[in-house]
Amino acid sequence: xxxxxxxxxxxxxxxxxxxxxxxxxxxxxxxxxxxxxxxxxxxxxxxxxxxxxxxxxxxxxxxxxxxxxxxxxxxxxxxxxxxxxxxxxxxxxxxxxxxxxxxxxxxxxxxxxxxxxxxxxxxxxxxxxxxxxxxxxxxxxxxxxxxxxxxxxxxxxxxxxxxxxxxxxxxxxxxxxxxxxxxxxxxxxxxxxxxxxxxxxxxxxxxxxxxxxxxxxxxxxxxxxxxxxxxxxxxxxxxxxxxxxxxxxxxxxxxxxxxxxxxxxxxxxxxxxxxxxxxx
Length: 280
Fold this sequence. Notes:
Elements: H1 10-16, H2 42-50, H3 52-59, E1 61-72, E2 75-86, E3 91-97, E4 111-116, E5 119-123, E6 134-138, H4 155-161, E7 165-176, E8 179-189, H5 190-196, H6 199-211, E9 216-223, E10 229-238, E11 247-256
Antiparallel strand pairs: 1-2, 1-11, 2-3, 3-4, 4-5, 5-6, 7-8, 8-9, 9-10, 10-11
């Protein structure tokens, strides 16, 4: 995949859209989680946020919109995604759109991404990959735990990250997409989240705790009356690619249409590209 330079951000974007795998051979619980009136602050708020992932499992599925903004050297680039997610089977499908060039023309075809426990599949990956083939990435080997690699944070993993909340403040009532919500702001610890996360998320979070510039992740989250995440924003500091300077990454996920059908089918082994990915 060719990603042209946006100021000094070119190398960071290459890292963020899967080029961490360049040069390598590729081959819950449930519960209502309702937000009680006393869940606005203190220990109750912490407990409410730590149940966010379980509440999504109970909800079953939803549509999702993602936005990932990276900033370094005074330049900002945004990658957007849209799709569906099945929280019970931990499977998602996103269509990810990369930035436009300076003239406003689209640089790349959208990438189709399939999210699965321990794996990320990408189609229209570019960089020498045949158009009809998928690239499979073992997310347990990624130093960011796939929180930023695919250009979108896995919605379920984003909710699991809230189980590592260290401190939280109830901000007040708000609305997200015409839905009344409660707004919380706080800091989560990736390492702490890894100790309580479900088994298929634990490994990637442990890797991220070591790979990020800091394990502390500031967040803002909006929960509806059932305790379901409607919007969550995380701010990561990631050191990746050839650059030594940390890249500031802001990830936003919007969840809506809970219960929508989310039939996500993973590619057959014969449809997965087994060669090496060319860089650049």
